[in-house]
Formate hydrogenlyase transcriptional activator (Pedobacter westerhofensis), 644 residues
Amino acid sequence: MNEKLLIVEDEFIVANDLTIILENAGYQVCGTADTVESAKAAVDRFRPTWVILDIFLQDDSMGTDLTPYLQERGIGYIYLSANTNQSILEVAKATQPYGFLVKPFREKDLLIMLDIARSKHESSLQFAAQRETLLQQQMRSLSEEALSYEHKLQKIPAVFQSLIPFDYLAFRYESTDSSMIKSGAFYRVGFNEYSVIAPLDEQGLDDIFFPETGQVNSIEHTSAKIFQGRTCNEPTDQQPLLKTGPRQYELNASLQFLSITREGLLQLNFCNKNLDAFDQSHINLLCKTRHTVFKLFSLLPGPTETAGKIFRKASRLQSAKPVSKFEGIYGKSAALLHVLDNIELVAPTPVSVLILGESGTGKESVARNIHLLSQRRYAPFITVNCAALPADLIESELFGHEKGAFTGAVEKRIGKFEMAQEGTVFLDEIGEMPLESQVKLLRVLQEKQFERVGSGKTIKVDVRIVAATNRNLEKEVAEGRFRLDLFYRLNVYPIQVPPLRERKEDIPLLAQHFLVLSAANMERAEVPELTATALNQLTDYHWPGNIRELEHLMQRTLIKTKAALIGQVELPVLSNPRSQVYPAAGSRKTLEQIETEHILTVLRSCSGKLTGMGGAAEILGLPPSTLTSRMKKLGIKKELYHGI
Ligand SMILES: Nc1ncnc2c1ncn2[C@@H]1O[C@H](COP(=O)(O)OP(=O)(O)OP(=O)(O)O)[C@@H](O)[C@H]1O
C-alpha cells in the first residue's frame, strides 16, 4: 500500500496502539505529533497522504485548526476523538473530514473507516479535477466567443454558478495604467436568471471589496479568502459586517478573490445567503484556474455604450430566457436554488448521492432529476422503498430469485438492481432498512456484483446509487441502528433539501402550480385564484408534511371551491399549529415528543383512519408505509388514539 499516515495524538499509548494496528494492516506510519505546530512540521517533512487527527491536543491546541493546512495540501484526514460534545462535533464536522470515529473504537471500525475515507478522497479529487476542467473550458469558450460586452456579461454568471455558488457576484478589473476600468455585479433571481447591476461606483466598491486587496502596482500575486458574517445587521465580534455590497440582499458569506498581474488587477466577490456556502475547495478551484479567470475579465471588450444602457440591455437579455432544466421542480427561493446547483453539479459524475430532508420535501424529485441530468438518463430509474421491504424478502427484491429458490418462488424474478442496469437505483427511506438487510446492500455496493437467490451465477451491475432519508443518519449510526460503513459508502455527496417552512417565498408559486395541476387532472377549465388572505394563511402555516401536504391541501381546496376566488383555505387539523407544535421556551420538548403529539392529534381527528382520503397519512402528507413505520418507532399504539 502506498499510503503514508501521520498520527496526530497527544496520548502516547493511543498513538503507539494506532501505529501497531495500522502497520499490521499494511499502512506506513511516517510519524506522530502531539500539537498543531509539530504536526505542521511533520507534514512538511514526511509529506503524508493521510492524517489521523485527535481533537484536543497538547498545549491546548485543537486538531481542527490543522485542517486548513491539510486542505491546502490536498491531504485527507479523519478524526479520532473521545469527545462527543455536540458543539465540538459541529466544529469538527464543519472542517469536512473524511470520517469521524469515537474512542474507544474497534480496530475493525478504524480500518473500514480508513478504507472508505480513501475511496471518498479519491472520488473528491476526481470531482475537483472535473470541476477545474469544466470551469477552464467554460471560461475559455466564453473568452474566445466573438460577442459584445453586454452579451458576454450576460453569460458570465452561468459560467461560475454551479462551481462557485453565489447569490451576488461583483467584479472589478483595472488595467495597470488605469486606462481601462470595468466593474459590475449580478444578483441571482432564478435558476438561470440574474439581474445585472450597473457598473459599481467608487462608493459602492468600498462596500464590496476589502481595501487591502485593492493595491494596483503591487507585486504579482493571487489570493482568495472566505468571510462569514452578516450584511443586514450591525457587526458583532462573532459576526463582522461583511463587505458584500447591498445590504438588502442579506448575504452571509463572501469569497473574495484578488489577482494582480503585470497587466492589471482583478477583484471578484462571490456572496451567498448561506453562511456555509464556501469552503477551501472553492478557493483551490479559483486559485488553480486564476490565469483563465483573469483572462476572461481582462479580455471583456471595453464598453462602447453608456454604462446604464449596457447594463439595461444585459439585464433584458438575461430575463428573456429563464431556463428550467429540472422536471417537476418549482420555486425560486435561495434555499431551493442551492439544491438545484448541487443537482447540476453532481448529476454528470458517477458518485453516490445521499439526499437528506424531512418527509415530503421533494427528495424523490431531486433523485429523479439527478438521473435525468446524468448520462444514464436513457436507462431505467428504479425506486426501492426500503421501509416497505421485509428483511426476509430483501435479497429477492434487490437481486431477484430463480424459480423454486424458496417456498413460494413459483416464478423466476428479476431484482431491482438488475432492472436498473446502466441506470440509477433510488434507495428511498434508507434509514428504515433493517440492519440485517444493510449488510446485503453493502456487499453489492462494494463488489458491484451479486447472485440471484438460488443461482450460483454472478451478475455484474453498473448502477448509480442515490439514497434518501428523513432520519439523522449520523445519530442512527451512533445509536447502532445504521452501519457506519454503509453510511460512508452512501454519503459521498450529501444534498440537504430544506423544509417548506424555510422557503416560504416558494409557497405562492407552488400553491398556484398545484391548483393548475389538479384542475387539469379534474378536467376543470377554470383555475380559481388564491386571495391575499388565503395566501397569508398558507405562508403562516408551518407545513409539517412539506410540499406533499401543500399539494394535497390544494387538491382538497379545489374540490371544495366552485367560485373563481379562494377566500380561505381549510388548514389541516391545527388552525394555529405553531403554538401547539413549538412549545414555549422553558418547557422544551424533544423533536420526537413533538412528532408523537402531532401524529396523535391527527390520528384522533380522523378517528384513527390511517390510509385513503381524509386518513392520517394523507393529512400528514406521508406515504402510509412511512407513517406506520414512524408510529412503530415512536411507540404510538392503537389504544393511544382509538376512540378518543
Ligand atoms: N419543488 C417542487 N415543485 C413542485 N412539486 C414538488 C416539488 N418538490 C416536490 N414536489 C412534489 O411534492 C410531492 C412530494 O415530493 P417527493 O415525493 O419527492 O418528497 P420526498 O421528500 O421524497 O417524500 P418522502 O420522504 O415522504 O418519500 C410529489 O408529488 C412531488 O412531485
